[in-house]
Inverse folding.
C-alpha cells in the first residue's frame, strides 16, 4: 500500500476549504449564501419555522479511526444532525461542518470524510453552507450544525406526550450497539495479527447500523402522508431507556413499555448470544440507533399500525407512576438511564 | 486557596446542562423553543433574512487556561460568533454552545465559563437556545453557533467591493496580539516563581483587547443611523493583511492601504518597543482584533468620516494590481497572509 499523502500545510487553510467544499450541489432556493463568507444566509418560506441543532464527535470518545472509515464517519455525522431535525418533525435544509484537525491527518483522509458528507447531503438534499477548520492538539473533532424547516404548527417537541398516548418506535433496537461490540471484539482479537481479516459474516446489518446509520426521513414522509402529527418525539441516541425517560421528563409523565414488544433484529439476538450478552440490555441501553420514538393519541392506533413500519411498544402513564419495562409475567423493571435496569418487586 | 470542586460525574449530563443553562434571559419573541429539545426553533420577521455562523476554540491551540480565565473565555467565544454576524451587517439573535470537556475540569470552572457566556448574552441581547455536552479525551473544546437577522437587501457580503471604494476600519490594530505577547512573556518569566505577580501595569487596554474583546455592534448601529450599507465587510480575526486579502479575493479586486494611516494604539506601540517588535507586524498580522473592515463607495467619504470612529486606510484597486501596503516614501510592500510582508521594489 502506497497511498498518496498530501500535508494540510501544503494547501493552506483556504486551499483546503476550497478543495473539501468543491462539488457540493445546492438543492434549496432558501439557501441564499453558502460557504465562503463570515456567515451563511438562509431564509424560510412564509409558513415555515426554522429548527437548528448542533452535535460534536470526538476521536477516541465517539469514534475509533482504526475501524471507522473516514467516509462512513462523514456520512454518520450528517445522520446525527439530520436525526435531531427529524425528531422535531422537520426536514433538513442546511449544514455547517466545523473541523478540529491535527497535522498528522493527511488531506486525503479529509477528502474521504467530505466524500461521506457529500454523499449524505446529496441523498438527503441538504445544502452545505459553511463551517470552520482549525488545528486540534490531539484527535479529530467534527461538529455538525444543521437547520431544518417545518410548517407552522407541525413541529413536534419532547414535551407534548399525554397520559394514555401510545409509544411508537421505528426500526429495531440495539443493532448499532452490537455492531460496535463486534468491531471492538475483532480489534482486540486481531491486535497483534500482521494481516488481520476480521470475521463479520452474517452480521453485515449490525455493522451498517453502527457505521452508516440512515436517518429516518422516510418516517417523517409517512407521518405527513397519513396526516399524523405526533404529540411528542425524540430520536434514539442514548438508548431507549434514557431517551424515553427524557421524553417523559419533558412531558411530565410516566411510561410502561412491554418486553415482548421490543423490536430486536435476528442478528442482534444472534450476536448477543454468541457474546454471552443479554439482547435486552442492548435494546434498552445501546445508543446510536438513530430511530424515532414518538407518541400519538390512543385514537390513532389504527392509523399508526397502517404505516406498517412502526411498533407500538407501550403507553404513557401519569408522572408519579414512573417509567417501567413490563415483563410477560407482569413484573415491572424500573428504567434507568445507564446500565442494566434494577429489578423491582 | 481551597476552592470548592464538584465533579461533573456527580451531576450527570442533564443535571450539568440544567445547572449551566439556568438564569439565561430570553430577549426575542422570534425564539420559539430554546434549550432542552432535539433542536431549537426560531423564526424570522417577514422582511428578514437569517445569518448563521459557527466557530470553535481548542485548548492549547486557541487559548491557554493558565492565563485565560474561564469567564473571559466564555465572553470571548460569544464575541467570536457575534463578530461574524456583525460582519454580514446583521444583528445577533440566538446562540448554541457545544462543549467537549475532560473529566479533570470541575463543574465550578464550567460555571465560570457560562457566567461569561451569560454576561455576553445579556449585554448583546442574545438568546441561548441549545447545545451539546460531550466528553473530550484531552482539552476543552468550545463551539459557538450563532444566528442573526438583517432586513432583506441589507446583508453585506465579502464579495461586493468595487474599484475606487474606500477601505474603512474600526478601532485599532494589533492590540489583542500584543496583549497575548504580554501574557506569554509573563508566563515564561514567572514559570518557576511560587507566588507569581505578573507586571501588567500600563497595558490594561492590551489585556482587555485580548482577553475580553467586545464585538462592534455599535458600528452596525451607526451605519444604520447614517443609512450606510457597506459594499463589502469582514471582521478582523486573522490579521489585517490576511482578512483584507480574503475580502479582495472574494470581490476579485486589489487594494492599496497606507502605512501612515494604520491606527495603532499607544500601548501597542509602547509594548512593541519594549519587546523589540515592529508594531506594523502586530498591526498587519496580529489576529483576534474583532474590529470591522469594510468598503464604501468613494462618494460616501464624508458620511463615513462623520461617524467619528472609523479610519479610512486605503482604497480598492483593480484585481491585477494586487494588495499592497504603501509606505510614506511611496514604496509598495506586497501583503502576505502570514509573517512579515516581503519588500518589493
Amino acid at each position: 500500500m502506497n497511498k498518496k499523502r498530501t500535508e494540510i500545510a501544503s494547501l493552506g487553510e483556504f486551499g483546503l476549504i476550497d478543495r473539501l467544499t468543491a462539488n457540493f450541489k445546492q438543492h434549496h432556493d432558501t439557501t441564499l449564501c453558502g460557504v465562503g463568507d463570515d456567515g451563511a444566509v438562509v431564509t424560510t418560506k412564509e409558513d415555515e419555522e426554522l429548527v437548528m441543532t448542533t452535535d460534536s464527535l470526538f476521536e477516541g470518545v465517539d469514534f475509533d479511526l482504526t475501524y471507522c472509515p473516514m467516509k462512513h464517519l462523514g456520512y454518520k455525522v450528517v445522520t446525527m444532525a439530520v436525526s435531531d431535525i427529524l425528531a422535531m418533525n422537520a426536514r433538513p435544509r442546511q449544514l455547517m461542518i466545523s473541523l478540529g484537525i491535527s497535522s498528522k491527518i493527511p488531506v486525503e483522509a479529509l477528502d474521504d470524510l467530505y466524500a461521506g458528507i457529500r454523499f449524505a447531503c446529496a441523498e438527503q438534499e441538504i445544502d452545505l453552507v459553511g463551517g470552520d477548520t482549525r488545528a486540534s492538539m490531539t484527535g479529530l473533532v467534527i461538529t455538525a450544525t444543521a437547520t431544518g424547516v417545518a410548517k407552522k404548527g407541525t413541529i413536534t417537541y419532547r414535551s407534548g406526550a399525554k397520559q394514555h398516548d401510545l409509544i411508537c418506535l421505528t426500526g429495531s433496537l440495539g443493532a448499532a450497539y452490537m455492531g460496535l461490540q463486534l468491531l471492538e471484539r475483532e480489534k482486540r482479537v486481531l491486535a497483534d495479527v500482521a494481516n488481520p481479516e476480521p470475521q463479520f459474516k452474517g452480521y453485515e446489518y449490525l455493522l451498517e447500523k453502527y457505521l452508516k446509520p440512515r436517518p429516518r426521513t422516510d418516517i417523517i414522509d409517512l407521518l405527513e402522508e397519513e396526516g399524523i402529527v405526533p404529540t411528542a418525539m425524540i430520536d434514539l441516541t442514548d438508548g431507549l431507556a434514557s431517551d424515553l425517560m427524557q421524553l417523559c421528563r419533558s412531558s411530565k409523565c410516566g411510561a410502561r413499555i412491554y418486553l415482548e414488544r421490543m423490536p430486536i433484529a435476528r442478528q442482534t439476538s444472534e450476536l448477543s448470544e454468541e457474546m454471552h450478552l443479554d439482547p435486552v440490555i442492548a435494546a434498552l441501553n445501546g445508543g446510536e440507533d438513530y430511530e424515532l420514538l414518538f407518541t400519538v393519541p390512543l385514537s390513532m392506533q389504527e392509523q399508526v399500525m397502517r404505516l406498517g413500519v412502526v411498533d407500538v411498544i407501550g403507553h404513557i402513564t401519569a408522572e408519579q407512576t414512573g417509567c417501567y419495562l413490563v415483563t410477560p409475567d407482569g413484573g415491572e423493571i424500573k428504567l434507568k438511564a445507564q446500565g442494566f435496569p434494577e429489578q423491582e418487586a
Notes: Chain A touches chain B through 62 residues (CB under 8 Å). Residues 339-345 of chain A have pLDDT under 50 and may be disordered. The longest helix of chain A spans residues 70-86. Residues 158-344 of chain A form a domain with the Phosphoribosyl-aminoimidazole Synthetase; Chain A, domain 2 fold (CATH 3.90.650.10).
